[in-house]
Every structure is written in C-alpha cells, then in structure tokens.
Specification:
about 80 residues; 4 helices
C-alpha cells in the first residue's frame, strides 16, 4: 500500500484482524531468526484489547497524539461507547 499514489481509507473488517495477527506472527519469527539470543518468551504479541488497556493505564495516549493527533479523538469516542 505504501507504493500507491493515493490510499482510500476503508472500514476495518474481521479479515483485517486475521491478516494483522498473521503479520505479527511473521514479524516475531523474523525477530527470532535475526536475533537468535531471543527466546519465544522474549518476543510476545498481545491482543489489541490488552494493548489498549496498557496504553490507557499508563496514560500513553498523549505521547501517541504527537505522532497521530486523531488518537485522542478515537480514544474519547471509544470511552463514550462504554
């Protein structure tokens, strides 16, 4: 997608989560292959819900806002839904 002249943002669908988890597993394999001193326990992927809780619990959203200003709006929208 980085090679596209333009990108049309679309809604996240369930198959996207599957593709994402497969990419994360492949990334972990590459890390273990290129950094052989790492063990399986050293490279762990976490579900998005866990990552979101950590981000909120450690108050990291403000840091993320510097890189992507929309993150605060999205976080507030998610909080309002609960």
């Amino acid at each position: 997608l980085m090679m596209l002249a333009s990108y049309e943002e679309k809604e996240f669908v369930p198959k996207d989560a599957t593709q994402t988890s497969q990419l994360v597993r492949l990334g972990a394999q590459i890390l273990r292959k290129n950094l052989p001193h790492l063990t399986i326990a050293d490279v762990v992927s976490l579900p998005g819900a866990v990552t979101g809780k950590v981000r909120t619990g450690w108050d990291l959203n403000a840091c993320l806002e510097l890189a992507r200003p929309q993150v605060m709006e999205e976080t507030m929208d998610e909080t309002a839904k609960k």
